[in-house]
Structure prediction request, 422 residues.
Amino acid sequence: MKILVIGSGGREHALAWRLVQSKKVSRVYVAPGNAGTHQEEGLYNVNLQSVEEWVRFAKEEPIDLTVVGPEAPLSQGVVNAFRKEGLAIFGPTKEASQLEASKDFAKAFMMRHHIPTAAYATFDSATLAHQYIDQQGAPIVIKADGLAAGKGVVVAMSLEEAHEAVDHMFGGALGGAGHRVVIEEFLQGEEASFIVLSDGENVCPLATSQDHKRLQDGDQGPNTGGMGAYSPAPVVTPAIHAKAMRQVIMPAIRGMKAEGHTYTGFLYAGLMISASGEIKTLEFNCRMGDPETQPIMMRLKSDLVEVLEWAVKGNLDQVQLEWDRRSAVGVVMAAHNYPNTPRSGDVITDQGKDDQDTHVFHAGTGINEQGALVTRGGRVLCVTALGDTLRSAATKAYQRLECIDFAGKQYRQDIGWRALKN
Ligand code: AMP
Ligand code: GLY
Prediction:
């Protein structure tokens, strides 16, 4: 089989790396990919950037199955376009991916289907939003309605910060994404990423994970796309797992079907779990998480191609995933000045080597004119390792990371700290 993976991040590197290990696969193409997918055996980068180009390539090659990494192509309708041509693809349609593409859609949907989430109000103008903030008080959370590449959420600890965020978004700082704003109740607790596969009807949960959204140790500094992740997340006890399936995932899948937007693909629920074990849905993403995918793929033992084939055929009820019982930790190495204006072009050196239990997944990397590996974006690498315990997985990941260097590198020293503390 020939597989196409759309995207260029660490998530796509990890997916492609796992897919190419399937006995059924002869080639995995990554469009457009990065320097890591270029170097990996069995993976081939193809420099294609639009829905039309992906469709044409998939028809010509021909590609047997396409997997979409990021949200942007999904909300552009890549799944609709592939299906129209009779091409197999795993992901939600443009209509179904509104669950991520519009915060207002997601909130109203959760209300309609009694999915637990923070109280909220939606605003199309700044004046009413400012009034609402004054009524509600701080802390309070301001979210741009549209896709904003991880920059659309401000957790405001003061009224001043909240008002500033509203002005910033309505002022056009996030383009069209901020012309409508959702303001929501501040929730406390521990976050977890709960990701499942769905064929529209049946659901197959992946291993649980936890991301680290803040730039600096101890969850300080600005929000980022994610600075590291580990799997499993002990905060998701069997009782919480059952509750998440019952209260969040199944109502979402049934609700989307009932509303005529049958949901196929990865569905990611960001959960806030309170000390008393209550869960609330922070957000839905219509794709896998980045960097959650990297540790999750390290632990997946089942043949991912087979699983996705079952999913595309609507037979997920017959799938039981097999996981490595060990823990996996992924530590992101980010570029100088990430997340604001990351610097590109710093030469990356690596004195180490991956082994069975470690893998360095690339994200923002490229090859310069002299043939050297260089930084090409905010999150550069995700150094991932398996270990018998979370602690040993973290130790191995950091040992591997010590071998890698580039000017301005930033990484957190404390990935996994919440679980390690307990
Ligand atoms: P989102 O993209 O909606 O998941 O928001 C990004 C991050 O902002 C989340 O991972 C949380 O850390 C934080 N966040 C979002 N909504 C809330 C909320 N209602 N209360 C507290 N923190 C939140
Ligand atoms: N790591 C968070 C996300 O992928 O949205």
